[in-house]
Automatic annotation (TrEMBL):
Domain Elongation factor 1 beta central acidic region eukaryote: 134-161
UniProt keyword list: Elongation factor, Protein biosynthesis
GO CC, alphabetical: cytosol; eukaryotic translation elongation factor 1 complex
Protein family: Belongs to the EF-1-beta/EF-1-delta family.
Species for this entry: Actinia tenebrosa (Australian red waratah sea anemone)
Record-level Gene Ontology MF annotations: guanyl-nucleotide exchange factor activity; translation elongation factor activity
Ranges for region Disordered: 28-82, 100-148
Gene3D superfamilies xrefs: 3.30.70.60, 6.10.250.370
Protein name: Elongation factor 1-delta-like isoform X2
């Protein structure tokens, strides 16, 4: 109860303090002799307003000490790591210096022995001796034999080439044959065109196609061998029928 009411500003014992104050005032008026020993001459009066609560200190020192100890251990570890690295670098430098000194101290390689010159001279002399024909044999017989061999090989090649089947290049051509007017007999004109016969020419299908104003044209196809029949030959032969044909146009030309 006292701890709970420590911070309250209510003065519960005011009556006691008032009576003590009156007694003290009377004692001062009557003098020191009239004051009875039983009555208290003075009492410490303290107002609850002047009483300050006791402050308790928080334990901060323990946390700071732990932090300082942790920093000291980390510092020791860093120092140890730095010392290890320094020692390793010194070892590497020492090793590199030893290797460099070993390279400089190594003896120079001995030069390769010179190749014997006498053997080369002997070989050259033997080659020169082989080139000399002591018996004086002529090369006419060898030339004749080589010519015979060449002729035989050429004949065999020609025979082999003749046996191979030759590929004949062919093409399909579609022609438009136009008459002079609508009175031209297209059936007779077609028969005239088909009457053109030569080696390497084969006529195909045909049809009548209207142009305009009642005029029609003949469209006819054929297969030709490229080496034997050309488009110029076909145009000249068809336009030779002047009474029926006005012009000839090539509609399509495809290789087979």
């Amino acid at each position: 109860m006292s701890s709970a009411m420590m911070y309250e500003t209510i003065w519960f014992d005011k009556d006691k303090y008032d009576t003590a104050e009156e007694l003290l005032f009377q004692a001062h008026l009557n003098g020191p002799s009239s004051a009875s020993p039983s009555t208290p001459t003075s009492a410490p009066v303290s107002s609850p307003k002047t009483q300050a609560p006791a402050t308790s200190s928080s334990p901060v020192t323990s946390a700071s000490e732990k932090r300082m100890a942790q920093l000291e251990t980390e510092n020791k570890e860093l120092r140890k790591t730095t010392e290890d690295l320094t020692a390793a670098i010194q070892k590497l430098e020492l090793r590199v210096s030893k290797l460099e000194s070993g390279k400089t101290d190594a003896p120079a390689a001995a030069p390769a022995p010179a190749a014997p010159v006498k053997e080369e001279k002997k070989k050259e002399e033997s080659d020169d001796d082989d080139d000399v024909d002591l018996f004086g044999s002529s090369s006419d017989e060898d030339d004749e034999e080589q010519e015979k061999i060449k002729a035989e090989r050429l004949a065999a090649y020609q025979a082999k080439k003749a046996k191979k089947p030759q590929v004949i290049a062919k093409s399909t051509i579609v022609l438009d044959v136009k008459p002079w007017d609508d009175e031209t007999d297209l059936a007779e004109m077609e028969s005239k065109v088909r009457s053109i016969q030569t080696e390497g020419l084969l006529w195909g299908a045909s049809k009548i196609i209207p142009i305009a104003y009642g005029i029609k044209k003949l469209q006819i196809g054929c297969v030709v061998e490229d080496d034997k029949v050309g488009t110029d030959f076909l145009e000249e032969s068809i336009t030779g029928f002047e009474d029926f044909v006005q012009s000839v146009d090539i509609v399509a030309f495809n290789k087979i």
